Amino acid sequence: MVREKKIFPVLPEPLKLHDAQGDLSKRWYIYWTCPREQKRKRRYSGLDQYGTLVERYQAAKLLAEELHPKIFRKQLPDEPPVIKALYKHLRDRQPFLAKTTFQTYSSKVNILAKWWNKRPGVVTHELAKSFMLYLAHDRKAHKTTWNSYLATFKELWNGTFPRIPNPWEGIEFHRDSKTSALYFQSRQIAKIKSKISECDPQLWLFVEFMYYTFIRPRELRQLKISDLLLDEHKILIRSQVSKNRKQQYVAIPAPFRPSLQFLHAYPESDYIFSHHGQPGPDPIGERSMNRRHQVILKELNFDTTRHKLYSWKHTGCVMAVKNGITVKDLQLQLRHHSLDQVNQYLRDMGVLDSGDLVSKFPEI
């Protein structure tokens, strides 16, 4: 398709548009280099829904103008050396951190830098406490968020300034009982399976992967066909993909194997979950499956604060226990480091060894 340069929009620097040379059949996106992380990032935001060049270029310009002030906040002229040192420490550690971990740490340091403004250049214990109170009162941070920030800054400070007393020490963590996503019950599984398998087969395959193999969503979207060792009935979780950066394997249970046979028709290098509902050279968007799953749950009148895409991993574990699979086998499939961790996970799910109590308790 010939590119109509006369309608190509001027975007605010340093945002740029990938327009696939004007090809409307390919994905368009805005991209930029993050000033803090020095990494290229991109945003799609539905540009592909516009069917003409004019509409798509106009939508891209509007998206860029909306993104720019959110991404590129003005640099504080008096940014303290402490903040600069934290950023440098993060960049040095970036190759050894999972992508999401690095992004989470960077976000927290960004918030600290923005709050700092014209405060003193030395981080004292009182200043650290003031920041934590700002999180609690101004940003309405939940107990879990408070604990996450506190743990992050304790760790970052120890790594950045190992010989200087840690100002975050002495600030207490909040006791917090985490509420895990609920698992689906049998009647709910049948209802959801009927809906998803009919209207979104790719999403149902994603669900099956989580249910049978316990692979995390962020790991699943990076899984390639070459990672499936179908003859050996197992899946390789590459170290670049794995949450803990270790190469590991999970088993492919017998009921799941027929669902994977169609993948033989695609190149080994393809990602299993790509765009357009089939394997391809690029992984699907990070939030795509979550959004699609949530839409369907809402259509079926589920409470999406309690049931989530991650519920399928929990559901698989619960059903495995109920059908007699041993805790040791579960540990291997979950890739947990100890049986105690598996037992705690099952307790959090409400899975208790109380079958005799339920069925044999004497009547009063």
Q: In summary, what is this structure?
A:
With 364 residues, this protein is mainly α.
Structure overview:
The protein is mostly helical. It contains 13 helices and six strands. The strands form two sheets. It has a three-stranded antiparallel beta sheet with strand order 1-2-3, with helices on one face. Strands 4-5-6 form a three-stranded antiparallel beta sheet. Strand 4 (228-229) and strand 5 form a beta hairpin. Helix 2 packs antiparallel against helix 3 (99-116), helix 2 packs across helix 5 (143-160) and helix 11 packs across helix 12 (339-349). The protein is globular.
Provide the fold topology.
Blueprint lengths: L15 E3 L10 E5 L6 E4 L9 H19 L9 H13 L5 H18 L8 H13 L5 H18 L25 H14 L1 H13 L3 H4 L7 E2 L4 E4 L10 E4 L36 H12 L11 H12 L4 H8 L4 H11 L5 H6 L4
Antiparallel strand pairs: 1-2, 2-3, 4-5, 5-6
Helix pairs in contact: 2-3, 2-5, 6-7, 7-10, 11-12
Overall helicity:
40-55%
Main sheet: strand order: 1-2-3
The total strand number stands at: 6
Sheet having the most strands: 3 strands, antiparallel
State which percent range the strand residues make up: 5-15%
Q: What Rg is obtained from the alpha carbons, in whole angstroms?
A: 24 Å
What is the string of helix and strand elements? Answer: EEEHHHHHHHHEEEHHHHH
Secondary-structure content class: mainly alpha
Shape: globular
Distance between the termini: 80 Å
Q: How would you state the average pLDDT, rounded?
A: 85
**Low-pLDDT residue intervals, each spanning 5 or more residues:** 1-6
Number of helices: 13
